[in-house]
Each structure stands twice: as C-alpha cells, then as structure tokens.
C-alpha cells in the first residue's frame, strides 16, 4: 500500500517558535516575527501538513509598536496560540518593552484585539486553563502564574515549576492538561545545535513536577542529521487521537562548516506515548502523514498587485507607515515612497517576503521613475545584497557587517526594467574564494564557495544579463547572528518607484 507521506519543513522559511491549536477539524499556527510588521503570521490547515497564511495577528501599529530603536531580532518573540471559551488567544513578548501581552479574537483571521499587558517575569508565555476555568500563564525559566484572562492581572504565583535537566535557557514552556496529568513541555540548551525538548508532569499546575524517565524527549544535538537545532516545540491532538509535535529546526547548508541561511523553520513530527510519557523524533525530512490529508493549491508565483490590499506574506522592517506605500496611486502597481535614505539603518521603505527555498529565483518589474529603487536580499541592516536602479544605471551593492561595496554597474534603458535574483546551492568543493570574472578578467563578485550563490541580473530584451554573483555565507545566521532568516523584497531609498509584479519560484532539485 502506498502510505502518504509529507515533507519537512511544513512551513519553510523564517518561521520559528511555532505554536499550534486545534478547533474541531481546523488547526491554527503562529510564529515569531521579531522586528517585522505586520507581526505573528497565522496559518490555517486541516491536516497539520498543508498550511495557508490567513493573516497576521498583529497588523495594527497599536498592537505592534516597533520604533526605530528596535534592533534586528528584537521585537516579537515566541507566541502561543490557544482557543478557550469561544475566543482565540495569542500571547507573546514585545522585547522592546520586555513585557508580555495577549490579544484575542473570535475568528483567527481577525480582527484581533488591542494588547492586554501582563506583569510577569520571563519570555515565551503560554496559556492553559484548568477544569475550574482558572487560567495559568507559564513563562521561561518555567514559572507559572494564575492570571485573570480578561485583565491579565496576576492572581497567584509566579510558582517555579521545573527548570529542565540542566541545559541552558529553560524556555518555550507549554502546559497540557491530559487526563489526570499536567504535562510541562519545555526546551533547553539554547536555540542552536544543542537545542532539546524535555518533559515533566504533575497532578496540578502548581506541581510538584516530576521529570520524565527519559529526557530530552527530542534532540538532534551531536548528530549528523540534515535537520538540526530541533526544539521550541508545541503539541496538538488530532481528531483521531494521534498526537503531533510542531517545532523549530534548521536545515544547514553547504560544506563544513555549514551555514543556516533561511533561519529557523517549522517542522512536524509524530508523538508516541510510552507509559504515559510523550516521546518524539528523530525529525525526518519525510514522515508518514497524519490520517487527514487536505492539500492546498500551489499559490501563484506572481503577485500582480491587483488586489485591494497587500497579501499577508508581505512584511516590512519595524513599520509600514501609511503614505510609504500604495496600491491605488497607480492601479495594478505597488508604489513605494522613500522614508529613509539607506537600507543600512532602520526607517527605510522595504516590502518583502521570507525566502523559503534554498534554490529559488525572484523577478520584479520595476519602474524606477526618478527614484532610487530595487530589490534586496536581507538578513538585517548590516547584512544585505541589493540590486538597484537609479538614473539609468543598475548596480549591485553588498553590505556585509561594517563594509559596503558596489560590486557591479551597468546602464539600463529608461522606463520599466525587470530585475532577477537567483539563489543556487553552490556545488564547488572545496570552498573557493575565487569568484567569476568578467571579459576583462575582473572579478564580478565578492567570491563564491559558501553554501549558496546569489546571482543578480537585469533582463535585457527578455534575456537576463548577469551583473554579479555573491557568496551567500555572508547572509547567514552564522555571520549575521540573530533569530531571523532571509527576507527578499522591494525597496526605495530616494523619491518614489512602482513595482508592477513580484514573482517568486522555487527552482531547486534539493528537497525544500
Ligand atoms: C525564543 C526562545 C527561542 O523566545 O528563541 O528557540 C527565542 N527558542 O524560546 C527567539 O526566537
């Protein structure tokens, strides 16, 4: 018999710290969004495998103030989504104020309320209700507090419950009331290669908690598995009684040392129960599928900007002020107006989406007008590669840490132009620091040989003319640090420009 299987990650691209809940046959999933606005992407699925983004929970500045001082990888950390008493709750931390808050909604697609703030120590807040209707909020360090779920006020605690087996950063707690037991699922070891998921249980949320007989219940630390950094997990029970774990992990790329370029992604793995304790892993690239199976149509590669609003995948660093963008000024085009002169500092106009595949291509139709505008692959203000057009010249610029360099230039005809960025897995072995050269023997890039190579082209008469190829390692978490992944998008840093469409396609043979 052909057993259906699914491929991990189930939500590729920078979608870390996943949390999931089920209402009837429907699942909802949220992820961290850090310095990006709108924040906390929310997805719907009928089978835990196929997810469609239905919105962003925090889509108003009143819910998500992210002033320019918010650093890259600051902002919104680790959300939890739960459904109780006919309401959806999403609770998270805004690291700018280092405070936890929750928002509620009757429908997961929104509108979501303004924040209700809590005064509790720690991050990674979780919500759970007991049979008496009491609400428990558990935060990192693994302390639980009984709260009033309308005002957010603390009523009892915080009570330290269980801080794990000794790994650093006991965090990402989730409490589950299953049968007679309260299970505490938590992560420890830090979000990198030592990441692990551990379990304890008690008869009451107040404790005392006893650790599971085998901890961690999931880790890939010290293994050669292609999926690494497994942790920050949540669990959900399917209608058929099977349990599933949603977690973050990374797909590391390239040769030794490996690089992580897409950030931490969302994976799915089955949970087994042994003597009343959950066990999970290893997390495979392919698993046997859950019983229900509801594939979704492949989303169109091209956004024509013909809709009344921006699709929920489009995000901007910190803010997307009214007046900085428009879909109506030039119908069928996304018009952007510069709010800051450089991508190197917060406050600029950028609209992008997560890069979700190691091998991919994106193309953009840009009318630069008299502005300075283009496309960028960014990890943060100090790590980005840009292809921009200004006064009839296309240029490729690389910003890597303290260094900024224009690596290629070429004249382009006036009027709209098509820009192409192609990311390919590098197949050079061993890594080479020598990049491609042009007809005069001059280097056209800053070297290839890392995990991937980003090629920047301008289409001339429908044929891409390559300006530069750049080494992808400098846009990796290992170089830039931080909690996010690559975001690819459109920007303007001078005047105004309009974009007719943006097309994103996976191109690779590698499983993505
Ligand atoms: C998050 C913490 C973690 O709050 O990384 O992997 C932090 N886990 O739980 C930021 O994502």
UniProtKB/TrEMBL annotation:
Pfam families: GH43_C2, Glyco_hydro_43. InterPro entries: ConA-like_dom_sf (IPR013320), GH43_C2 (IPR041542), Glyco_hydro_43 (IPR006710), Glyco_hydro_beta-prop_sf (IPR023296), Glycosyl_Hydrlase_43 (IPR051795). The record marks 124 as: Important for catalytic activity, responsible for pKa modulation of the active site Glu and correct orientation of both the proton donor and substrate. CDD domains: GH43_XynB-like. One of its GO terms (molecular function) is hydrolase activity, hydrolyzing O-glycosyl compounds. Residues 302-416, 454-505 form the Beta-xylosidase C-terminal Concanavalin A-like domain. The active site is at residues 17, 171. Gene3D superfamilies: 2.60.120.200, Glycosyl hydrolase domain, family 43. GO terms for biological process: carbohydrate metabolic process. The keyword Hydrolase applies. Keywords: Glycosidase, Hydrolase. Belongs to the glycosyl hydrolase 43 family. This is Glycoside hydrolase family 43 protein. It comes from Microbispora oryzae. The lineage of its organism: Bacteria, Bacillati, Actinomycetota, Actinomycetes, Streptosporangiales.
């Amino acid at each position: 018999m052909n057993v259906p299987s699914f491929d991990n990650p189930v939500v590729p691209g920078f979608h870390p710290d996943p949390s999931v809940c089920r209402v009837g046959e429907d699942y909802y999933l949220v992820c961290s969004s850090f310095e990006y606005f709108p924040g906390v992407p929310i997805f719907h699925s009928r089978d835990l495998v196929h997810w469609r983004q239905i919105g962003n929970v925090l889509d108003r500045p009143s819910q998500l103030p992210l002033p320019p001082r918010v650093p890259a990888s600051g902002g919104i950390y680790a959300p939890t989504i739960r459904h109780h008493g006919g309401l959806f709750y999403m609770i998270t931390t805004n690291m700018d104020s280092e405070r936890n808050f929750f928002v509620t909604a009757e429908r997961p697609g929104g509108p979501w309320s303004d924040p209700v703030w809590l005064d509790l120590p720690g991050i990674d807040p979780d919500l759970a209700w007991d049979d008496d209707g009491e609400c428990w909020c558990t935060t990192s360090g693994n302390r639980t507090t009984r709260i009033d779920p309308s005002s957010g006020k603390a009523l009892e605690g915080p009570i330290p419950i269980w801080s794990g087996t000794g790994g650093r950063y006991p965090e990402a707690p989730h409490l589950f009331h299953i049968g007679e037991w309260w299970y505490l699922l938590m992560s420890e070891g830090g979000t990198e290669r030592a990441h692990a998921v551990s379990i304890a249980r008690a008869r009451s949320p107040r404790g005392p908690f006893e650790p599971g007989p085998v901890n961690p219940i999931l880790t890939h630390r010290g293994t050669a598995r292609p999926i690494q950094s497994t942790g920050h997990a949540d669990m959900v029970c399917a209608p058929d009684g099977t349990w599933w774990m949603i977690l973050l992990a990374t797909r590391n790329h390239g040769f030794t040392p490996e690089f992580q370029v897409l950030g931490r992604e969302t994976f799915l793995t089955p949970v087994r129960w042994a003597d009343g304790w959950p066990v999970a892993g290893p997390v495979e690239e392919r698993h046997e599928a859950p019983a229900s199976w509801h594939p979704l149509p492949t989303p169109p590669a091209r956004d024509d900007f013909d809709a009344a609003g921006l699709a929920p995948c489009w995000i901007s660093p910190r803010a997307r002020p009214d007046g900085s963008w428009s879909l109506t000024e030039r119908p069928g085009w996304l018009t952007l107006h510069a709010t800051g002169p450089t991508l190197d500092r917060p406050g600029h106009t950028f609209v992008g989406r997560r890069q979700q595949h190691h091998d991919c291509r994106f193309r953009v139709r840009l009318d630069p007008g008299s502005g300075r505008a283009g496309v960028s692959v960014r990890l943060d203000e100090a790590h980005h590669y840009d292809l921009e057009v200004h006064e009839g010249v296309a240029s490729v610029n690389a910003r890597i840490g303290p260094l900024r360099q224009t690596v290629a230039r070429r004249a382009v005809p006036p009027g709209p132009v098509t820009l192409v960025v192609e990311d390919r897995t590098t197949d050079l072995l061993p890594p080479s620091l020598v990049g491609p050269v042009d007809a005069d023997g001059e280097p056209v890039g800053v070297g290839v040989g890392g995990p991937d190579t980003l090629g920047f082209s301008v289409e001339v008469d429908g044929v891409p003319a390559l300006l530069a190829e750049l080494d992808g390692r400098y846009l990796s978490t290992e170089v830039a640090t931080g909690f996010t992944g690559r975001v690819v998008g459109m920007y303007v840093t001078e005047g105004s420009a309009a974009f007719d469409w943006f097309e994103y396609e996976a191109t690779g043979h590698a499983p993505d």
